[in-house]
Design goal:
Blueprint lengths: L10 E4 L3 H12 L4 E5 L10 H12 L14 E5 L12 E4 L5 H12 L7 E4 L6 H4 L5 H5 L2 E5 L8 E6 L5 H14 L3 E4 L8 H19 L3 H7 L12 H7 L1 H14 L10 H8 L12 E5 L5 E6 L6 E2 L7 H4 L6 H9 L3 H21 L7 H12 L5 H8 L1 H10 L6 H9 L9 E3 L5 E3 L7 H4 L6 E5 L2 E7 L2 E6 L8 H17 L3 E5 L11 H9 L3 H20 L4 E4 L2 E4 L1 H7 L3 E5 L2 E4 L13 H11 L8 H12 L7 H7 L7 E3 L5 H12 L12 E2 L3 H16 L5 H14 L10 E2 L1 H16 L2 H13 L6
Parallel strand pairs: 1-2, 1-4, 2-3, 4-5, 7-8, 16-17, 17-18, 18-20, 19-21, 20-22
Antiparallel strand pairs: 6-7, 9-10, 10-11, 12-13, 14-15, 15-16, 23-24
Helix pairs in contact: 1-2, 7-10, 7-14, 20-22, 21-31, 22-23, 22-30, 24-25, 25-29, 28-29, 29-30
């Protein structure tokens, strides 16, 4: 059997600055031990000071760099004078030092003397070509070298640009790309070793051109950010908020370097206004002011000031609303893009200028920065938070329409667009094909297992409802996929699960996965429907609805076939309850799971309260008192605790030890399918528990005492205490029981349902639901 010489089990990062420390944290998140080295500071007695400081910075970072603080223990700090020899144990060595070519060359000369002969070697440089860094190194060193450009913050931005040089061994490229995707959870784009690589080359061009068009049309930065943010399917930080986050000095230097390194027609020339902003040291978040500045009013409330480009003074412009955006913001993305591209006035003039620049430049870069169109699209989506890349957006508008507009502006078409014009092809992606950078049709290769590819074959969709589908994943596994807004749980979603269970039994499938690839797994129940029924006093209908919900969530546990939940993103309320009842959970590492019903004056009514009590009771040692389990469940549910990662979800108890955490969200469905197939042989249908020990009145008394203290101390409102009392009644097994009572799961479910309905009938709960629906924030009444 052939062994894999490039398996990465230990790593080293050189450079403990913002990026180096954050990359080390992501390695630790993935369970990889990592050595973090930096220089020794003169006159500092702690020779590892910079590496330790980097770890502490990562621990304090917001958003958090570590998925759980304990992962920091996997990072060993050191320095380049005393600890260079430690690199001999590393399977992958990454440099993240200052962006100076001579410094990098000197470092690699030192590293080559100690690194083992199977170590993969990488630079995180964002602009210095990789082949220049390794000049003078041995042929063996050059063969194992590949660029690895992460985007900040590395935990959250999906993109990892992998940049081979002409000397890189294809086996190294393949092994490292697999490691980056599967172990680190990144979306891999293979970039050519050219200035700026893919995302920065096109992204910085877009910022430069946006600045030029903004000044030409007389728009303000906040107006531009309204036009180029979510309305256009791009990140909320849009153009100039993103610039502030990146650092205007960084953009200044990168743009100037690209201007020198690229042909004249690409034009990375910064405007005089931009140069003046940098000269005044308005560099963005790092200096507290850039295109925007945070300040506080007389009441201490944070205000965002916008930079006046004429005076370079900051002014309070309030909440800016752009009519072109307001007119389309409730429409689907495709409709918004088409409307904005065709908008009238200076807003439309600006957008067509910026979008046409982007279309022209992305097409010109095809085959230059990367050899596949989907890599360019993915780089912009994964690196900058776009919903669609430039080629996908051109498909939305119609490629021939875009070409006609570019020609009307007098532009020379890049070879790709000229080939598309000649062929008359209207889309870059059509069916199972795309095109090469020269415009020739070629099979589309999906970068990973995604549902949208399955849906190209209509026979894969077994049954469909407006808010849910049942999809055949192949090999005898069915998938229930929800696709409502925020995947809120209503009748479509519940009936789809019921239908899928029935199909598994009737058609002889192996089992069932519940998952999807929307923005979130599920944000919980359909609150508007629940509120309207409560206000109409439809109590019988609500009782039936909650019974059905309990039956469907618990069917994940008590069906005659294995069920696997595949949560990611938000898995709240009912989404959490579906997950915790499954035989097995395959969770994305970025899963934010919690039973949050108390925030709207309710308790979990779909078996969540019952399930957490069971789990914590089962974890007690023999003869240990029950109260700690009750208190743990009460604290978890009563404070609406939400995990900040799947690793924390395991600590909180939502995930069990045998559940699986997958670093790459896009692999969750595939892994869940594999788990169903692993569980199916010899699967035995579980039966509901009948002998669950409960404390009865003693538990209620203990919880009420704690609630009294919290209320008197100002930590809980009076209505919090009322909700908490109902929660305690369920966790105690009901009133009238003594310390040795045993109850069934159904008994606890009945208590849940009764408490849910009791609270729903109260004014305080209805006020909380109304407030949440209006503001998105909980009400403390």
């Amino acid at each position: 059997m052939q062994t894999q010489p490039y398996r990465i089990q230990k790593a080293a990062v050189i450079g403990a600055g913002v990026m180096g420390a954050a990359i080390a944290a992501q390695l630790a998140n993935a369970g990889i031990p990592v050595t973090l080295l930096d220089i020794v500071l003169p006159d500092n007695p702690d020779r590892n000071f910079l590496a330790k400081q980097g770890i502490q910075r990562a621990l304090k970072a917001r958003p958090a760099a570590f998925m759980e603080p304990d992962r920091a223990a996997l990072i060993t700090p050191g320095n380049l004078e005393d600890d260079l020899k430690k690199l001999k144990d590393a399977d992958w060595i990454l440099e993240a030092i200052i962006e100076k070519l001579d410094a990098k060359r000197d470092l690699w000369a030192r590293v080559e003397g100690v690194a083992k002969k199977t170590a993969i070697l990488s630079s995180n440089s964002s602009g210095i070509p990789m082949h220049l860094q390794i000049e003078g190194r041995s042929e063996d060193f050059q063969r194992r070298f590949v660029g690895a450009h992460f985007f900040n913050p590395p935990r959250y931005l999906h993109l990892l640009e992998v940049i081979p040089t002409p000397k890189t061994d294809p086996a190294v490229l393949e092994a490292f790309s697999e490691f980056g995707e599967s172990v680190l959870g990144k979306g891999i784009v293979i970039a050519n070793d050219v200035p700026g690589f893919v995302a920065n080359r096109i992204g910085v061009y877009g910022i430069v051109r946006a600045m030029q068009h903004m000044e030409r049309t007389g728009l303000t930065p906040d107006e531009v950010d309204q036009l180029t943010g979510p309305a256009l399917g791009r990140a909320k930080s849009a153009t100039f908020r993103t610039a502030d986050l990146s650092g205007l000095d960084i953009i200044y230097h990168v743009a100037n370097d690209l201007n020198k390194a690229t042909p004249a027609d690409e034009d990375f020339t910064l405007t005089d206004t931009f140069k003046r902003i940098v000269e005044k040291k308005f560099l963005g978040d790092k200096t507290g002011s850039g295109f925007y500045k945070k300040t506080k009013d007389e009441k201490g409330k944070t205000k965002i000031l916008s930079l006046n480009l004429d005076s370079l003074e900051y002014e309070d412009r309030g909440k800016v609303k752009v009519p072109a955006v307001e007119a389309v913001k409730s429409q689907p993305l495709a409709a918004r893009v088409k409307a904005l591209y065709g908008a009238e006035g200076k807003e439309g003039d600006f957008l067509r200028g910026v979008m046409n620049d982007g279309f022209w430049y992305a097409s010109k870069m095809a085959g230059n920065v990367s050899n596949r169109l989907q890599d360019i699209d993915n780089a912009l989506k994964w690196g900058f938070g776009w919903e669609e890349g430039p080629f996908e957006t051109m498909d939305t508008l119609g490629v021939q329409t875009v070409i006609a507009n570019l020609e009307a502006e007098g532009r020379t078409l890049p070879p790709l667009l000229q080939a598309m014009k000649n062929s008359g092809r209207e889309r870059f992606y059509e069916g199972d094909t795309t095109v090469t950078p020269t415009g020739e049709a070629t099979p589309y290769q999906a970068p990973y297992f995604i549902l949208t590819d399955l849906k190209k074959d209509a026979t894969k969709v077994v049954k469909k409802r407006p808010g849910a589908s049942i999809v055949d994943l192949g090999d005898g596994v069915l998938l229930v996929e929800w696709h409502a807004k925020m995947n809120a749980l209503g009748e479509d979603q519940l009936r789809a699960v019921q239908d899928a269970h029935k199909l598994v039994g009737e058609m002889g499938y192996a089992g069932l996965v519940v998952g999807n690839q929307g923005e979130n797994f599920s944000a919980g129940a359909n609150l508007p429907l629940i509120l309207s029924q409560a206000q109409a006093e439809e109590w019988d209908e609500l009782d039936d609805a909650i019974k059905q919900f309990q039956q469907v969530t618990t069917s994940m546990r008590f069906s005659p076939h294995p069920t696997v939940a595949a949560p990611f993103g938000l898995a709240l309320g009912g989404g959490c309850e579906f997950s915790i009842h499954a035989d097995h959970i395959v969770a994305s590492a970025e899963t934010y799971m919690g039973l949050v019903e108390v925030g709207v004056g309710l308790i979990p009514g779909g078996g969540g309260t019952k399930e957490m009590l069971l789990r914590f009771t089962d974890q007690l040692q023999p003869n240990q008192p029950l109260l700690p389990a009750v208190q743990r469940a009460f604290e978890l549910i009563g404070t609406a605790k939400v995990s900040t990662s799947a690793l924390e979800a395991r600590k909180l108890g939502f995930l069990r030890d045998h559940d699986t955490v997958v670093m790459n969200k896009n692999h969750v469905i595939e892994e869940a399918k594999r788990m169903v197939l692993a569980l199916a042989p010899g699967y035995v249908q579980p039966t509901p528990r009948q002998n669950i020990p409960v404390m009865g009145d003693a538990a209620i008394a203990a919880v009420k005492l704690a609630l009294y203290g919290m209320t008197e101390g100002g930590y809980a409102s009076k209505y919090d205490a009322e909700v908490g009392t109902q929660l305690a009644r369920v966790l105690s097994g009901g009133t009238g029981n003594n310390r040795t009572a045993k109850v069934s799961e159904q008994h606890l479910l009945d208590l849940e349902r009764d408490a849910f309905l009791t609270l729903l009938g109260k004014k305080g709960t209805q006020q909380r639901i109304e407030h949440m629906l209006k503001t998105g924030k909980p009400l403390r009444n």
